[in-house]
């Protein structure tokens, strides 16, 4: 199992600083979502973790060591844009990329076959990559990422080009490996996938870490003080309510600062209302993302 | 297995499986074999007794009285131009030659044929030449007639710098020129694959996956070794074919008689392939790392290709002046030395110190290119869609 520690890392290209004092950690065995708008330094951060480029300052440690060849062999990387040889056959591609991670040719071929089958591409293993659809090529890339059974997997936009069935397949594989102790860094714009898969979220904005923490904590932080309510009858007056919005089959009640939702619940019970829905209004990660990017409270 | 060797063996296998590689590697010797066999067949056909051409002549100069039977043609006299033209139009003649009264002073002969078109032929047909000589030299000794027909057979002896006759002959010179062409073709084919491969890996983003597994240095060296291995396979096939073809050609084509292919030359060919390939492959790798697209890379590669083929263009000069300053410069200059050395070996005028000097300079240039390419590789392999400026590259080399 591998953990990652990114400590005050900065990287500039010419006069442009792409990553500025970024720090976060990825505990071993967890799935962390690396999110943020386009061009804020996510891919640069990933490349530094993978030792493809060096930071100008700051340090990166994987299991307490600086990234080096031995530790990199235990990492799998699926890049944002597919990186496959167009004229090579599927199994050959997966086996070659596996052998570059230190596997023997024979093992790379047998494991390659296993993973190609697991990703539903067994029938296409002798086809050239150029003959595959984008989604199929994505599954091959996924097999190539996992063929050497990495302990840390970095996935950059893994769900792009996949149909819903294959999205489920990939998510199932991620969950299976995570249960076996594999650590994941998942960079994606698809916030619903992050919410489904990730334990922690690091949001990078303008080259800096804007949010970092457990998903549940972040959502709580950005929750605001409102509840969704559906009840019958609706009491004519309730204390502690700043404003109310009608949302069709339910209403969203915005509470005064410091007002306790439990007090509101008691008021409803005392008023004899039959409650169908009473829920603390938790924002989706997408709403949090928009709030952070737009600077909204 | 070492990652560099993994990359090398992968590149080697992928390259030798390419159809274009197989075609060039095996088709060229096959074409040369067909050429030799074709020459033999044509030669046999040409010298087989076949249909005799029927020529008529009108002797206005009053000098042609006999010798109408010539190899390949029969000359029939006609008393007037009209009679000859009639025979020509009735297709009893293939051509009619009219010797005017002033023939001896002017050498003018008018040839009549039937049909349109323009002939660009300037040489006198062999039967006509024989007919004229036999009549003009009536009574002269056969050897005199032979010398008038073929005044001199020049056999040139050039001395080496040590004063020994150098084994020069036209066949050998041409043969080694052909070998130098093959050498440069192989070098550029292999290094071209390298350039194409690197730019493609950048374009389809495989580069990013590779660099998450191996260092840029391992990647570069692995590719250079693998594609160099493919080039060596090609050169080995060509050298082995050349040895066999040289023997066959020496027995078949008169101008190549006595042609041999010494084993030392094979070693020299391999040495210059390895060194030349190392230099050009690393330069192409550098080009690949800074090019945005395959097309752009191929276009810029001209700056290396053009110097390398300069010796091919100045070959006639080099054959005539193998020890001139230009020839020596091209022998020592790394970008031109692989081809030049092979050409000068053909002429037989290159000293061992020149070979050693050019090999050392070529090696040093290759090592320098390797160092520079390593720097550019690290800096620009992940730069997509745009090419760094000259200043950026200088900065990367200094960094």
Description:
The complex is a heterodimer of chains A (about 300) and B (about 400). Chain A is elongated, with a radius of gyration of 23 Å. In chain A, the strands form 3 sheets. In chain A, strands 5-6-7-3-8-9 form a 6-stranded mixed sheet, sandwiched between helices. A 4-stranded antiparallel sheet of chain A has the order 11-12-10-13, covered by helices on one side. Chain A has a 3-stranded antiparallel sheet with strand order 2-1-4, covered by helices on one side. Chain A is α/β, with parallel strands linked by helices and about 300 residues long. Chain A is about 35% helix and about 30% strand. Chain B has helices at about 5-15, 20-45, 80-90, 105, 125-135, 140-150, 170-205, 205-210, 215-250, 265-290, 295-300, 300-315, 315-320, 325-330, 335-345, 350-380, 390-399; strands at about 55-60, 70, 75-80, 95-100, 110, 160, 165. The mean pLDDT of chain B is about 80. Chain B has 2 domains: about 5-35 and about 170-399, no CATH class; about 50-150, D-Maltodextrin-Binding Protein, domain 2 (3-Layer(aba) Sandwich), CATH 3.40.190. In chain B, the strands form 2 sheets. In chain B, strands 2-3-1-4-5 form a 5-stranded mixed sheet. Chain B has a two-stranded antiparallel sheet with strand order 6-7. Chains A and B meet through α3 of A and α1 and α8 of B.
List the helices and strands and how they pair.
The complex is a heterodimer of chains A (297) and B (399).
Chain A: E1 4-13, E2 16-26, E3 31-35, H1 42-49, E4 57-62, H2 69-72, E5 75-78, H3 90-99, H4 105-118, H5 134-146, E6 152-156, H6 164-179, E7 183-187, H7 191-197, E8 200-205, E9 208-214, H8 215-221, E10 226-232, E11 241-246, E12 251-255, H9 261-270, E13 274-280, H10 285-294
Parallel strand pairs in A: 3-7, 3-8, 5-6, 6-7
Antiparallel strand pairs in A: 1-2, 1-4, 8-9, 10-12, 10-13, 11-12
Helix pairs in contact in A: 3-4, 3-5, 4-5
Chain B: H1 3-16, H2 19-47, E1 53-59, E2 69-70, E3 73-78, H3 81-89, E4 95-99, H4 103-106, E5 110-112, H5 126-136, H6 142-149, E6 158-159, E7 165-166, H7 170-203, H8 206-211, H9 216-252, H10 263-290, H11 294-300, H12 302-313, H13 315-320, H14 325-332, H15 337-347, H16 352-380, H17 390-398
Parallel strand pairs in B: 1-3, 1-4
Antiparallel strand pairs in B: 2-3, 4-5, 6-7
Helix pairs in contact in B: 1-9, 2-9, 7-9, 7-10, 7-12, 7-15, 9-10, 10-15, 10-16, 12-15, 14-15
């Amino acid at each position: 199992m591998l953990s990652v520690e990114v400590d005050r890392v900065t990287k500039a290209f010419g006069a442009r600083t792409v990553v500025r004092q970024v720090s976060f950690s990825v505990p071993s065995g967890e799935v962390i979502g690396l999110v943020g708008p386009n061009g804020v330094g996510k891919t640069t951060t990933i490349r530094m973790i993978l030792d493809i480029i060096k930071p100008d300052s700051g340090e990166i440690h994987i299991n307490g060591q600086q990234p080096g060849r031995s530790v990199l062999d235990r990492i799998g990387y699926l890049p944002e844009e597919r990186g496959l040889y167009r004229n090579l056959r599927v199994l050959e591609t997966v086996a070659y990329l596996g052998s570059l991670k230190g596997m023997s040719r024979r093992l790379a071929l047998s494991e390659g076959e296993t993973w190609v089958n697991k990703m539903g591409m067994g029938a296409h293993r002798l086809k050239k990559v150029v003959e595959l659809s984008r989604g199929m090529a994505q599954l091959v890339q996924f097999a190539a990422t996992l063929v050497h059974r990495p302990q840390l997997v970095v996935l950059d936009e893994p769900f792009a080009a996949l149909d819903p069935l294959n999205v489920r397949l990939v998510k199932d594989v991620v969950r299976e490996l995570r249960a076996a102790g594999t650590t994941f860094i998942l960079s994606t714009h698809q916030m619903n996938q992050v919410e489904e898969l990730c334990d922690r979220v690091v949001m990078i904005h303008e080259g800096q870490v804007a949010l970092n923490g457990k998903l549940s904590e972040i959502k709580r932080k950005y929750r605001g003080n409102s509840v969704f309510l559906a009840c019958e009858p609706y009491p004519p007056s309730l204390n502690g309510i700043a404003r109310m919005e009608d949302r069709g089959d339910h209403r969203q009640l915005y509470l005064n600062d410091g007002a306790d939702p439990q007090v509101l619940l008691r008021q409803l019970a005392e008023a004899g209302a039959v409650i169908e829905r009473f829920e603390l209004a938790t924002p989706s990660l997408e709403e949090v993302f928009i709030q952070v990017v737009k600077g909204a409270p | 297995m070492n990652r560099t060797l993994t990359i090398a063996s992968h590149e080697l296998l992928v390259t030798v499986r390419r159809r274009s590689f197989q075609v060039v590697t095996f088709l060229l010797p096959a074409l040369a074999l067909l050429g030799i066999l074709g020459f033999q067949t044509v030669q046999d056909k040409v010298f087989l007794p076949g249909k005799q051409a029927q020529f008529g002549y009108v002797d206005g100069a009053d000098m042609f009285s006999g010798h109408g039977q010539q190899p390949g043609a029969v000359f029939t006299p006609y008393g007037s131009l009209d009679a000859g033209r009639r025979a020509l139009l009735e297709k009893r003649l293939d051509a009619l030659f009219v010797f005017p009264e002033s023939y001896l002073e002017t050498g003018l002969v008018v040839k009549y044929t039937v049909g349109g078109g323009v002939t660009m032929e300037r040489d006198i047909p062999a039967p006509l030449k024989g007919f004229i000589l036999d009549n003009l030299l009536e009574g002269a000794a056969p050897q005199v007639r032979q010398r008038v027909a073929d005044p001199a057979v020049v056999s040139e002896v050039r001395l080496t710098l040590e004063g020994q006759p150098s084994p020069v002959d036209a066949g050998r010179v041409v043969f080694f020129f052909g070998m130098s062409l093959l050498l440069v073709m192989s070098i550029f084919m292999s290094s071209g694959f390298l350039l194409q491969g690197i730019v493609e890996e950048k374009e389809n983003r495989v580069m990013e996956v590779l660099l998450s597994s191996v260092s840029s240095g391992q990647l570069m060296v692995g590719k250079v070794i693998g594609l160099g291995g493919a080039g060596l396979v090609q050169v080995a096939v060509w050298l082995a074919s050349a040895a066999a073809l040289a023997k066959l050609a020496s027995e078949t084509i008169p101008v190549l008689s006595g042609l041999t292919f010494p084993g030392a030359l094979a070693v020299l060919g391999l040495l210059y392939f390895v060194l030349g390939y190392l230099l050009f492959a690393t330069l192409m790798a550098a080009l690949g790392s800074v090019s945005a697209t395959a097309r752009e890379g191929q276009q810029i590669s001209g700056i290396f290709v053009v110097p390398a083929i300069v010796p091919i263009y100045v070959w006639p000069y080099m054959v005539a002046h193998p020890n001139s300053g230009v020839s020596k410069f091209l022998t020592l200059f790394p970008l031109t030395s692989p081809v030049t050395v092979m050409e000068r070996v053909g002429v037989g005028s290159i000293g061992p110190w020149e070979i050693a000097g050019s090999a050392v300079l070529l090696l040093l240039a290759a090592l320098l290119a390797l160092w520079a390419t390593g720097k550019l590789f690290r800096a620009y392999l992940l730069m997509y869609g745009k090419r760094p400026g000259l200043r950026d590259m200088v900065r990367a080399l200094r960094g």
